[in-house]
Predict the 3D structure of the following.
Amino acid sequence: MPDRRVQAAIDHWAPRFITMGVDYNDFVRTTARIERWEDWLAAWTAVAEEHLVLATEAEAAGHERSAGEAYLHAALCLHFGKFVWLHDAAAHRASTERAIEALYQAHRFLDPSAERVEGSLGGAVLAGNLRRPPGVARAPLVLLIPGLDSTKEEFFHHENAFLVRGMATMSMDGPGQGESGFALPIRPDYEVAVAAMLDALDGRSDLDLARIGAVGVSLGGYYAPRAAAFEKRFALCVAWGANHNWGAVQRRRKEREGERPVPHYWEHVLWVWGHDDLQEFIEFADQVNLDGVVEQITVPFLIAHGAGDRQIPLEYAHRSYEQAVASPKRELRVFTVEEGGAEHIGLDHLPHVSAYIADWVAGTFTELAAER
C-alpha cells in the first residue's frame, strides 16, 4: 500500500503528468509499484532508462523521429521523478541535469532550430530554451514562464501550441526553477530575471523583438503580470492561472490541511523560496501579491482561469481583471466544467485551454503588427 505522500502524488498529479506528455501506461505501471516516497525518484528513473535505451537504438537505426520522441519521454520521466522530491539533494540535482540533457537530445531530432539561451543575474546563470517556427523570418516571441514546480523541461507541448501558429517560444528557468534554482531562490520581483533573459536576446534579427509576450503558468500567473507591469519590452501578457495573491492561497491551504499537511508540498515550497521555517515563510509569502501591480499593466492582458480551480480561487481572476484598468485590451476567460478545462490551468482539458490562449496571443500579435 502506498504511503501518504505517494498516494497524494498519484491523486493530484496524474492529469498533469499525462497532459504534459508522460505516457498513461508509464504512469500507471510506475506508480503501482511505488509504496514509499523515498522510492519515487528511483522508480521514475528506471522508466526513463527504458526510454533512453529506445532512443539510442532508434538513433543507431537512423529512426530520428522515434529517437527524439523517446528522448522526450525520458526527459519528462526524469523531470517528474524529481520535481518536488527532495529526499536526496544530490540525486535530485543529478536527475535535473539528466532531464536537461535528454531534452536537448530530443531537440536534435524534433526541432533542430532549438537553442539554449543564457542570461545572467547576480553572477548566476539563467537558462532558456528558444525555439523558432519554420518558414518565419522574424517571428514574434512568447516567453513561457514556469510556476512553482515546473521547469523548461516540462514545456515542450506548451511550446508547440505557439510554434504551429507562427510564434517563437522561449521557456525559461528563473530563480528557484530548474537548473537556475540551484544558484538562486525564487524572488517576488521576478521581473529582474525576465529582464536578464530579454537582454540575452537583444539585437537578434531572427525575432520580432517589438512583439514579445509574457505567458506565465500557475505561479507564473503572478510572475508574468508582474513582469509585464515593470518590464516595458513586453507587448502583451497572459496569466494562465490568476495567481493574484499567492500568499493568501498559502494561508488558506495551511488552514485547510490543519494537522495533516502534505509534507512534500511544504518541503518543496520552503526549499524553492529558501526558507527553513514554515510560519516565517507564510508571512514572507504575503509579498507575492499583485495588488498595486496589475494596475500598471499597459499592454493587452488575458487572464485564463478554471471555474473549478481547487488551488487558486476564482475570485483572484476577477480581482486581476478588475484592477487591470490601464490595459488597452483586457479579457477574463473562465473555463467551466461543462466545456472542460475548469481545473487548475485547465489540466482537465489542456488542449482546449492552450489552444484558446495561443489563438488569443497570435491574434493580438497580428493586431499589434497592423497598428505599426
